[in-house]
Specification:
The protein is of the alpha+beta class. It has two helices and three strands; from the N terminus they run ααβββ. It has a domain at 29-95: Trypsin Inhibitor V, subunit A (Trypsin Inhibitor V, Chain A), CATH 3.30.10.10. It has a three-stranded mixed sheet, covered by helices on one side. Keywords: Signal.
Length: 96
């Protein structure tokens, strides 16, 4: 019994050392940059427009936000959020 407790005590630090590291903020190859997204303001929301906005921003993920929709406050450096007007046009776009 004592031997089993000793083996368990020795195994625990090994498990803790193998835990994955937390991701470093901004270390992604897909980090979104919203510097040039103003050019899309006022355009109708289409699949092609979304693809163009992703390409220009470098974002990995795109999230359309309909007029009046609520979004979470979580931050993702790989995400582009496109906020739409009531008539489905781009109101603004931001990374995060």
């Amino acid at each position: 019994m004592r031997r089993l407790a000793l083996l368990a005590a020795l195994a625990l630090p090994a498990c803790a050392a193998a835990a994955p590291e937390a991701p470093v903020r901004g270390a992604s190859a897909y980090e979104c940059k919203d510097d040039a997204l103003g050019q899309f303001t006022g355009q109708p929301a289409t699949q092609q427009l979304g693809a163009d906005m992703q390409r220009v921003s470098g974002a990995r993920r795109l999230q359309w936000v309909g007029h009046g929709m609520m979004v979470t406050m979580d931050f993702s450096p790989e995400r582009l959020r496109v906020f739409l007007t009531a008539d489905n046009r781009v109101e603004r776009a931001s990374c995060g």
